Amino acid sequence: MFKQKVYQLFFLVSVLISSAMANDDIFASSDNIFSNQVDFLPVEQAYQISPSIGPKGASFYWTIAPEYYLYKHAFKVELNGIDITNSLEIAEGLPKTDEYFGDVEVYYQQAMIETPAIKAQDKLVLTVTSQGCADAGLCYPPRQQYFKVNADLTVITELNSAPSSTLTADDADQTDTSITLIIAIAMAFVGGLILNLMPCVLPVLTLKVFSLSQQKNSRDLKLQAWAYTAGVIASFVFIAALLIALKASGQAIGWGFQLQSAWFVGALVYLFFVLGLGMFGSLEIGSSFMGTGQAATEQGGVKGSFFTGVLATVVASPCTAPFMGTALGFAVAQDWYTALLVFASLGAGMAFPFLLLSYWPKLQQYLPKPGQWMERFKQFMAFPLWATAIWLLTVVTAQAGSLGMAIILCGCLLIAMAIWFRGNFGQVLKIIFALLAIGLLLSPQLRPTNNPSQSNLSNAYSAEKLAQLRSEGKAVFINVTADWCITCKVNEQIVLGTQEFEDAVMINDVSYIIADWTSYDSEISTLLAQYRRTGIPLYLLFPKNSAENARVLPQILTKDTVISALNSL
């Protein structure tokens, strides 16, 4: 019984650590893992725009945060795709000698531009481009904002994205609020289904299927399936609410932010290590928790199914499916209730196969029959869990160096010792070693180090570097990646790491930049926010000699897609 409690303790600790990220001390104190980086404002907060429209034309007024400024030369306005920048009325700015642009005029505190009179028409969209920097050293990429003007020239409204040329402005709004929501919910549901096949999740879900196969009572089977569904959906909604709350407080974060902390990744290592021990037989795991093993009460089975859903969500964190990116990006940009709906759909998709098994009796005949082979298979599933733990250790190494990896390995050693001790005195030692393991996990030594992947073609990302290259008229390809992003690593293996890609980069004179988001980086988070993305991978291709925003490539890359894009520059 005590072994079971120890196991539950480690699982709950890993879940509670995730929730602890909502604590202000984690993100705001001087002793936190992000304290070695300047906390730059998101571009939306640094430069707040207020548009107006009237018979004399449109006006755009910026309120600029202290110690931030806008470039005069970067202002550009297009009317239905036609450049009208030369006809703008722009006040003189302050002279400044800039590191990248030389002698320029800039605006502090406030800025305003005015267009000439605009002729009324049914479809009227203004595209406004601006660019600014912070005195502390961050330069944002050029920012494009889109504004719809009604036919009477009395109302101007900002759009979430560039409207399609085949739609009216009104049609574009309807698409953003209705059709896109339906698509986002559908994509999230499909992404949840795909998560069941991810290597991090599959061992846990396999055991859950085995537990369902042992249920003879149809009512118990349905009850456990619904409990599991509740655990999955509740966990995804919790993560979504946490993400929304942190973004509302001004944190520049995105999906997968929990994996940017070495101590959270270390908690996952602990979790996979303990789960592997349990499946291999070194640690007795009661059925009240995992839904496998010895017979349990009905109440215990329901609790076990619920927490299995929570567990599946936690271990799914490193295995985010690429189909989820667009849907989650849309969700976070919408109202909070819309975001929660999309995340709930994601959880529903992940839990759907189990609900289907519980309500479709014909499918239950295909479930594996109980027998001695199931124990052997359960032991075998310990190995992919330990393999996942080894992979996560490489992520810890990238975030906190070899010392961080050594700390987590020592923690695993303490866990093994806590499990090994017997007797009354051993029970005390179990608690001591368990607490020591948790203490190592929370060690201040587990701090991130910026150690981006390098190749003979790559440069580490910085906003200053991007601004410099673009000011020189260079084409730029940015790969926003992370060691914990499986889709990123697959793309890098089959496309971005090939000789064909390197040749295309060299032939087309493209600057290849790697933005490593393995650890928290406010500049990369700002870049993601600029392109309305909450997660990775993200691939940006900036054209030559242009101030336009980048072309966003698909999350799943092919050689033909990337090379064709490079050759089109």
Description:
The protein has 569 residues and is α+β, with helices and mostly antiparallel strands. The chain folds into three domains: 2-38 and 196-441, no CATH class; 43-137 and 142-175, Immunoglobulin-like, CATH 2.60.40.1250; 458-567, Glutaredoxin (3-Layer(aba) Sandwich). The chain is 51% helix and 16% strand. The strands form four sheets. A five-stranded antiparallel β-sheet has the order 5-4-10-12-13, with helices on one face. Helix 10 (324-333) crosses helix 11 (336-359) and helix 14 crosses helix 15 (423-441).
Fraction of residues in helix: 40-55%
In DSSP terms, counting alpha (H) and pi (I) runs of 4 or more, how many helices? 20
Q: List unreliable stretches of 5+ residues.
A: 1-37, 165-179, 284-300, 449-457
Strand content: 15-25%
Global geometry: elongated
Largest sheet: 5 strands, antiparallel
Tell me the number of strands: 18
Write the layout of secondary structure elements.
Blueprint: H1 2-19, H2 24-28, H3 43-46, E1 47-54, E2 57-64, E3 68-71, E4 76-79, E5 82-83, E6 89-90, E7 94-98, E8 102-108, E9 110-114, E10 125-130, E11 132-134, E12 143-149, E13 156-159, H4 169-195, H5 202-213, H6 218-248, H7 262-280, H8 287-290, H9 298-315, H10 324-333, H11 336-359, H12 361-364, H13 372-380, H14 382-420, H15 423-441, E14 458-460, H16 463-471, E15 475-481, H17 486-496, H18 499-507, E16 510-516, H19 522-530, E17 538-542, E18 551-553, H20 559-567
Parallel strand pairs: 14-16, 15-16
Antiparallel strand pairs: 1-2, 2-9, 3-8, 3-11, 4-5, 4-10, 6-9, 7-8, 10-12, 12-13, 15-17, 17-18
Helix pairs in contact: 1-7, 1-15, 4-10, 4-11, 6-9, 6-11, 7-14, 10-11, 14-15, 18-20
